[in-house]
Amino acid sequence: MKDLCHNIENDRVRAVSVNPVKLAPGLGAGYAAQGFRKAVPFYHSAPGCSFLSKVLLTQHFMEPVASAGSDIKETALIFGETLELQNSIQKFCEKSKPEIVFILSSSIPEIKGEEYTTILNYLKTKFSDIKFILVPAPDFQGGFSEGFADLVYRAIVELAESDGFSDKKINGQINFLPAPYMTVGDIDEFVEIAESFDLKTIVIPDLSSGPDGSREKYSGMSVQGTSLEHLILSGRSIATISAGESMKSAGEFLEKRHGVRHVHFNSITGLSASDDLIRQFMILSSRTEVPRRVKKYRARLKDLMVDTHLVLSNKNIAMALEADHVIAMKSILNEIGVFSEISVAPVVNAKNGNSENMIVGTLYDIEQKIESGSPVDALFAGTHGQELAKKYNVPLVRSGFPLTDRYGMNYNISIGYKGSIYLIRELANILVDKEKSCAWHLQQKME
Questions:
Q1: I need a surface site. Which of 182, 250, 283, 436 has the fewest CB within 10 A?
Q2: Nearest to 64 by CA among 186, 212, 224
Q3: What residues have CB less than 8 Å from 332, skipping those under 6 apart?
Q4: Residue 224 — φ and ψ, nearest 5°?
Q5: Which of 133, 148, 163 is the last residue of a domain?
Q6: Are 331 and 248 found together in one domain?
Q7: pLDDT at 17
């Protein structure tokens, strides 16, 4: 009995430490902050929290990222760190002169009950031209997607304006709230499609012009991304398109407070979801004809779906991604005859969990499924899934965050017709290689 309990405890430790899926909300918030111009995520946390977040973000983007922190010490925690936080933010602002400072409150100050009102009032008086936005991001409230979405929501609540302009909407201007899993390539693709309909897009946050490798010199804050001016003007757009359940609340706020029509998509990946997106673009632009570029990629997608049918049909794909990402992947996999017997996410709400057969879990849950004899033809996961994939000889389709063992992953596209083509092509070719490898090994054994 003692040995059994010991083995169970070892399994639990291994599931968390070796096969992680859940990432801290502070990391998601820090990720989102990279998409705002002249902004910085300022971690009010112990040194390790801000350091590890910066390491993971740097490894993922393979670029220097914006990050700063108060680095709470034991003595400050005991005797009070309010003044220390205030001074550290003040020094950063005097040196770097940012436009937006996101103060990310970690578990320690949230549990202790940090008094931020005095600090914020002082900073806003001292630096009237800088916007300070408090984002509570303790580890015990949600995960990566929740931290990402909350920072975007608070930025919009604090900065979007429309008072006095209710009858002065900017024709042809729309807002796009990308899901936390969307890459630089995804954002570029969305903007290009919108432009083909003569629509100008304000992306919040715009990670396609932030840590994308285009900056020429290092800065302690993000030098590109959604500007303060565009955040303010987002309240005067004709519509907001949000992608992913986690981004829904920000779009709903813009509609309720500023009268900006909100159109929400759980997914814009796959033929059906892409068709829905194009219909909305036609409505927003008042166009009756679909641009040639869009027609071309739709035809290519349909052709590829037919070509790869025999390779993909009835394959079983395991997924270990954020909940929004699982839903987006299932929308296209279902169209091409692929099913997913097990999909795990770090945080699952009741609605998504029931409708998508998704569970809260880790990569260890997928390993247990494989051990029990369930066939898994491929795994959708971030870099952390590579050990599991290698152990059981399961092809890994690298998706989500973090992606640290391949180059150029941030330029991948998985949305719209074009992105759906890239996704199906990658999955089909991986499965073809697997079948050829299995056939070769079988032939070697027979000889």
A1: 436
A2: 212
A3: 267, 269, 270, 271, 273, 420, 423, 424
A4: -130, 180
A5: 148
A6: no
A7: 47
Same domain flag for 369 and 285: no
Does residue 39 sit in the same domain as residue 131? yes
**Rounded-to-integer distance, Cα 402 and Cα 415, Å:** 19
Sheet of 131-136: strand order equals 68-69, 39-44, 100-105, 131-136
> Residue with structure tokens 């092809």?
395
Closest CA relative to residue 319, chosen from 268, 368, 358, 350: 358
Rounded CA gap, 264 and 81, in Å?
42
Q: Within this chain, do residues 213 and 116 fall inside the same structural domain, yes or no? A: no
Q: Which of 299, 329, 353 is the last residue of a domain?
A: 299
Q: Is residue 325 part of a domain?
A: yes
The CATH number covering residue 415 comes to: 3.40.50.1980
Work out the number of other CB atoms within 10 angstroms of the CB of residue 317.
24
Query: Could you tell me the residue range of the domain that residue 361 belongs to?
Result: 309-446
Average pLDDT for 314-330: 95
Same domain (yes/no): 61, 98: yes
Reading the block at residue 334, the tokens are 């279902």
* pLDDT of the residue at 75: 59
* Cβ atoms 376, 369 nearer than 8 A: yes
Domain membership of residue 281 (yes or no) is yes
Query: Residue 138 carries which side chain, given as an amino acid letter?
Result: P
Edge-to-edge strands of the sheet including 173-177?
A: 200-203, 173-177, 239-243, 261-265
Q: Which amino acid, 153?
A: Y
- Given a cut of 50, whether residue 385 has pLDDT beyond it is yes
Contact 382, 365 (CB under 8 A): no
16 assigned to some structural domain: no
Please give the pLDDT value at position 55. Answer: 85
Question: Residue 102: inside a domain, yes or no?
Answer: yes
Q: What domain count does the chain have?
A: 3
Question: Is residue 322 located within the same domain as residue 424?
Answer: yes
CA distances from 107 to 85, 110, 153 (A): 15, 5, 20
Q: In terms of domains, do 374 and 355 share one? A: yes
Indicate if 69 and 117 belong to the same structural domain. yes
